[in-house]
Amino acid sequence: MHAALILEMAAEAFPERTATGPVADGLTYAELAARARAGGAWLHGREAASVVFVGLNGPALPVALFASAEIGRPFAPLNYRLPDLELRRLLARTAPSVAIVDDDMISRLAGVAGVELASASQFEAVCRDPGRRAAAPPAAERDIAVLLFTSGTTADPKVAVLRHRHLASYVISTVEFMGAEADEAALVSVPPYHIAGLAAILTGVYAGRRSVYLPAFTAGAWVDAARREGVTHAMLVPTMLQRIVEELEARGERLPQLRSLSYGGGRMPAPVIERAMALLPQVDFVNGYGLTETSSTIAVLTAQDHRAAMSSADPAVRRRLGSVGRPLPSLELEIRGPAGERLPPGASGEVHVRGDQVAGEYQHGKALSEDGWFATRDAGFLDEEGYLFVEGRLDDVIVRGGENISPGEVEDVLRLHPDVADVAVFGIPDDHWGEKVACAVVARGRRPAVEELAAWARSRLRSTKTPEAWAFRDALPYNETGKLLRRQLRAEMSEAAPAPA
């Protein structure tokens, strides 16, 4: 199966059901399919090997994605938040291509060799012609569906390759076809250049759920849209959920129509999810863990898992609230040691995964083993019942005198301090130990003394895990998908002495 067929099936099953946009005047599935066909016909006439999208969430996005699939051209959404020079450099790597660009961004990209620019309004106009239809056959399942640039820091970002068969495998194994009720609506606030944003489009269409796009996230705009559009489902990153909870508490609102909130893309602090569950008891909370190279989610902590953990007095069950759940039934997942050996439950190592949705492919080579396993570069362990605990990127694990220290374990302890609003733990170079534990803290009101925080950590952790270098910040750096930028903090604290307490 390929992405174009997913839309055609939905349009045939529920042609008059609203697919995307406001409840009052959104596009039906029949209209969305017709516009994708018209867009595909227009794109087919361009001399382009791929279709680039540079813009906010909005009506042009799903049309462009399915139009690209209609004619078998890879769809490549780019991060519009990048500085102009870097964005233009990435755009040049897609040539020859046609780029659909938000009207107010198009001047940033003019003159890139081999790239034809089309404004979003121009593209939407040609897609309204019901007589257009591409002459080319639709994409085959082994064709490339999506090209996603990874978030490189010290070198050019790699381009992850996802084929139609990988995306279809994920969608079919996680969503029931047309399983959504007629009144369901999903609020999509994850950016289009993130795998979660594209997965939301595909799974929403396959389920028959109306999708509402939030162009740019603020907690206030999210709550307003959720109330106005009768939103029942949404996907968030942890930082978004925390801000939404604070907004709802400030307003005294509860969004009674909301039924399901999934979250992922970063580590969820236990106090945040506990607070959210207490505020919204009617909502099913679901944690999903996945990577670009795995076509989105590979493990899920279900709503039942959340409630069982919250209500349990057993510490082993309770701590599962900090896990990402169990692997999807369609996948195999193992924890492996440095020599590639499979590790038993409770032992930390690298997460490896295998299955039909796992691409593990880049534009210049594959990262799969000969027998199909993908090494995620994430550190973690499985408990006795198969729940996966992700400890962070392998690069984030602190190696102090030969001891591996998980930043998340130290962060969880410091977050319990009443004067800590946010915290990040990471390693910085040390002449004696190789690395030492460093910590950046955002205070809640009163700024606690370093000695107080160190004593708090030392009383709950081994002394070797207690941070030795401290800094206070007004806020921690996160990217737009909620990932903590530890490398940025590490670089800053490695170059300069921490601020005095």
Describe this structure in words.
- The chain is α/β, with parallel strands linked by helices.
- The protein has 3 domains: 161 residues, Rossmann fold (3-Layer(aba) Sandwich), CATH 3.40.50; 106 residues, Luciferase, domain 3; 99 residues, GMP Synthetase, Chain A, domain 3, CATH 3.30.300.30.
- 31% of the residues lie in helices and 25% in strands.
- It has 15 helices and 26 strands.
- Strands 10-9-11-12-13-14-15 form a 7-stranded mixed β-sheet, sandwiched between helices. A 4-stranded parallel β-sheet has the order 4-3-5-6. A 4-stranded antiparallel β-sheet has the order 16-17-20-21.
- α9 links the parallel β11 and β12.
- The longest helix is centred in the N-terminal third of the chain and has 16 residues.
List descriptors:
globular, 4-stranded parallel sheet, 15 helices, Luciferase, domain 3, GMP Synthetase, Chain A, domain 3, 3 domains, 7-stranded mixed sheet, 501 residues, Rossmann fold, disordered C terminus, alpha/beta
How would you summarize what this structure contains?
By secondary structure, the protein is an alpha/beta fold.
SSE layout and pairing:
Elements (H helix, E strand, L loop, with lengths): L2 H11 L4 E3 L6 E2 H16 L5 E5 L5 H11 L4 E3 L6 H10 L3 E5 L13 E5 H7 L17 E6 L9 E5 H11 L10 E4 L6 H13 L2 E4 L5 H10 L4 E4 L1 H14 L8 E4 L6 H10 L4 E8 L4 E6 L1 H9 L3 H4 L7 E2 L4 E5 L12 E6 L6 E2 L2 E2 L7 E9 L5 E6 L4 E3 L2 E3 L1 H9 L4 E11 L3 E10 L6 H9 L10 E4 L13 H10 L6
Parallel strand pairs: 3-4, 3-5, 5-6, 9-10, 9-11, 11-12, 12-13, 25-26
Antiparallel strand pairs: 1-2, 7-8, 13-14, 14-15, 16-17, 17-20, 18-19, 20-21, 22-23, 24-25
Helix pairs in contact: 1-2, 1-3, 1-7, 2-3, 6-7, 8-9, 9-10
